[in-house]
Amino acid sequence: MMLFQYVYFVVLTAVVVLSLASLFVNFNFSKHSTFDKVMVGFLVFLIFHSLYACMARFFFTDTAFVDVGAPFGLFYGPFFYVSLLALKKEIDMDWKLVFIHFFPALLFVMAYVILWTDLNFFQNYISIYLIVLYMLSGIQLIAYALFGFVKFNEAVGAIELKLVVNYAIKVMVLVALIFLG
């Protein structure tokens, strides 16, 4: 079990280092398009998620809910959606619509914080919360993947861009299956 924790730590450290390197490249060598700004937000989120997962795994070993109950999975679909909008060169994004896509994740963050305040008191609700969280995470990733496949492939002509997005969609579906499993 100890070896697994070290591997987990190394993987999360690699994610943080690569994200920081990507941020450095983005700030110093990019043209600061809408897509670049979305990627900065995503990379900051990814760094936060990785650091949180690492701290939860190593410092809250006696409370599994701190790790498994965090609703970070609900943020990946909306980030994918917003990045597709930015890639399609939709400069005037409807930020109210973007907020609506992030709303379920923010709602689950509030529920997570409330449940975490008194795990003993909310003990009967934690299993329901986890089932709904993981089912919604999986369904959401599949829905955003389908949206990306249908809408993005018909709107973009560059074959290289389509290949990258289709690869990302396949990864999202695989991750969704993990959430649903």
What does this structure look like?
With 181 residues, the protein is mostly helical. Helix content is 84%, strand content 0%. The chain is globular, with a radius of gyration of 18 Å.
What value does the average pLDDT take?
A: 81
The percent range for helix content is over 70%
> SSE order in H/E notation?
HHHHHHH
Principal-axis shape equals globular
Tally of separate helices: 7
Q: Please tally the β strands and state the result.
A: 0
- Note the main sheet: none
N-to-C span: 22 Å
State which percent range the strand residues make up. under 5%
Note the topology.
Layout: H1 2-29, H2 34-59, H3 64-68, H4 73-87, H5 95-117, H6 123-155, H7 159-180
Helix pairs in contact: 1-2, 2-4, 4-5, 4-6, 5-6, 6-7
Structure described in brief:
With 181 residues, the protein is mainly α. The chain has seven helices and no strands.
Key attributes of the depicted protein:
single chain; 181 residues; mainly alpha
